[in-house]
Amino acid sequence: MEPAKIGQNVVIYQDVKLGENVIIGNSVVIYDGVQIGSNCIIQDNVVIGKQPARAKNSILPEVKKLPPTIIGAGCTIGTSAIIYANAVIEDEVFVADLATIRERVTVGERTIVGRGVAIENDCKIGNRCKLETNCYITAYSELGDYVFVAPGVITTNDNYMARSKERYDKFKGVTIKTGGRVGANTTILPGKVIEEDGAVGAGSIVTKDVKKEELVVGTPARKVRNVPEEQLLRNQE
């Protein structure tokens, strides 16, 4: 068993478990109980296992200490990324520089979380997804396998835009089912569903659900045609 290679100014708290051949860069902070699988690369200034902080005027209930983060084998966590407590990162995930993955998030195997991506709390991300630079995955969202989210995509979960107590139990993230694709700078409104192999053109605003194998474009997004047969997930190797 090869010991971990640990850089300078690293802080590792109690009960942290490191697999074989782990490489940890400089100024990394790893909190209590974190598990990191074999052959992982943790680059400089990464924070893993951070407990969430709550604003005094937050509507969310105060949360007691959450369980530790789990990172699978073969993962790379880029410079200055932050992964909160109670997140599960499965095998061979790539998390790029400056990404943030919040508490109670699961990221499936071989998914790419791009530079500056934010995945908010209570999300589930499937296997082999690609979340591109600076896209925002709002809380309570669910993405299936092989989902593509282009740079600058914004998803939302609050139809009341922070007004009225009525909204407290009605937050609803977005759902993008297996093979769904979303073009650059698209905005998806709360609770909307993109069905299997649905596609949204760049710059669109999604105000209605997108049906299976439909391509929608515009503001608001409307169907223009079905996705070409050769672009459907079932025909990919």
Structure explained in plain terms:
By secondary structure, the protein is mainly β. The protein has two domains: 1-51 and 64-108, UDP N-Acetylglucosamine Acyltransferase, domain 1 (3 Solenoid); 132-229, UDP N-Acetylglucosamine Acyltransferase, domain 1 (3 Solenoid). 0% of the residues lie in helices and 30% in strands. It contains no helices and 31 strands. The chain has strands spanning 5-6, 11-12, 17-18, 23-24, 29-30, 35-36, 41-42, 47-50, 70-71, 76-77, 82-84, 88-89, 94-95, 100-101, 106-107, 112-113, 118-119, 124-125, 130-131, 136-137, 142-143, 148-149, 154-155, 175-176, 181-182, 187-188, 193-194, 199-200, 205-206, 214-217, 222-226. The mean pLDDT is 93.
Helix/strand layout:
Elements (H helix, E strand, L loop, with lengths): L4 E2 L4 E2 L4 E2 L4 E2 L4 E2 L4 E2 L4 E2 L4 E4 L19 E2 L4 E2 L4 E3 L3 E2 L4 E2 L4 E2 L4 E2 L4 E2 L4 E2 L4 E2 L4 E2 L4 E2 L4 E2 L4 E2 L4 E2 L19 E2 L4 E2 L4 E2 L4 E2 L4 E2 L4 E2 L7 E4 L4 E5 L11
Number of strand elements? 31
CATH topology of the largest domain: UDP N-Acetylglucosamine Acyltransferase, domain 1
For the CA atoms, what is the radius of gyration?
A: 19 Å
Helix content: under 10%
Largest sheet: 12 strands, mixed
User: What is the domain tally?
Assistant: 2
Average pLDDT works out at: 93
The level 1 CATH classification of the largest domain is Mainly Beta
Any guess at the CATH architecture of the largest domain? 3 Solenoid
Provide the β-strand percentage band: 25-35%
Distance between the termini: 36 Å
Number of H/I helices: 0
By CATH, the superfamily of the largest domain comes out as: Hexapeptide repeat proteins
Which structural class do you get from the secondary structure elements? mainly beta
Largest sheet strand order: 1-4-7-10-13-16-19-22-25-28-30-31
Query: Per the principal axes of the C-alpha atoms, what is the gross shape?
Result: globular
Which segments are poorly predicted (pLDDT under 50) over 5 or more consecutive residues? none
